[in-house]
Amino acid sequence: MKVIVVAGTPGSGKTAVLINTIKALKNRNYKIAVAKIDCLYTEDQLRFRKLGIPTLVGLSRDMCPDHYTIYNMGEMVSFARDNRSDMLIIETAGLCHRCAPYTESGLGVCIIDATTGPNTPLKVGPFLSTANIVAITKGDMISQAEREIFRERVTEMNKECRIIETNGLTGKGSAELAVCFEEAPEFCYEKDQLRHNAPFSICTLCVGEMKIDSKHHRGVLRHINGVQKYIGE
Q: What is the pLDDT of residues 27-49, one digit of tens each?
């Protein structure tokens, strides 16, 4: 089985791009399963199921959606195997710009919105810099010069990635993405691991402290001047 992890900024058009890509893959007779991970609410599973695709939904709630995706990878792989799928596509909400849920033997796809500004690729961290594929959406809404600057910023962050310009409405780029999904390596769950470590900082805010002054907090803390320290057990 092949496993494709798709991450990206909110509103970048991840689901729309995937719908078009899945249609192209179905025409090639692939059996696909989808795991849709969101934070609080989603109806996107209905769009996948209309295509006849078995879809597992997970809501991370007060947990980082990328951490949630990593933690539940075994459940999602089992779901795909139970459905005798050739390919598991995991769409994660990807809200934390410090996380990267891609694994060594999976295919990592970053979907990013070109209208968010030319410096966005410099801000989003490992889920772009460790991706195999960077799919740029909404490029038709900006000028040619802006598109070229955006692509340059992407390559500054990830020189090895393949850039595909996509459009969730027209289906542009979906055939090219489908070929990339086809060429993904075989997934090896038992021996797999993350490409990049998750954030190592844990503090009392993470476990529910609501007071707002630094004197109330413990754990791995970073001050505004960049100095980091550890306080407490």
A: 999 999 999 999 899 999 999 99
Judge if 181 and 213 occupy the same domain. no
Q: What CATH number does the domain containing 117 carry?
A: 3.40.50.300
Euclidean distance between CA atoms 13 and 2, whole angstroms: 22
Tell me the C-alpha distance between 21 and 30, whole Å: 12
Which whole-number Å values give the CA distances from 168 to 36, 54, 146, 196, in the listed order? Answer: 17, 21, 20, 28
Widest Cα–Cα separation across the chain: 59
**What is the extent of the structural domain holding 29?**
2-191
Count CA within 13 A, CB hemisphere, residue 219: 14
User: What pLDDT sits at residue 96?
Assistant: 64
Average pLDDT over residues 145-169: 96
Type and span of the H or E element at 69 = helix 65-71
Same domain, 106 and 208: no
> Is the domain of 174 the same as that of 221?
no
Contact call for residues 42 and 21 (beta carbons, < 8 A): no
Phi, psi dihedrals of residue 95, rounded to the nearest 5°: -80, -25
Residue 210 and residue 187 share a domain: no
CA pair distance 9, 186, nearest whole angstrom: 27
Q: Which of 4, 2, 82, 6 is nearest to 38 (CA)?
A: 6
CA-based R_g, the chain, Å:
18
CA atoms of 57 and 95, how far apart (whole Å): 17
Query: What is this structure's pTM?
Result: 0.91
Residue 147 class from Cβ within 10 Å (0-12 exposed, 13-18 middle, 19+ buried)?
Answer: middle
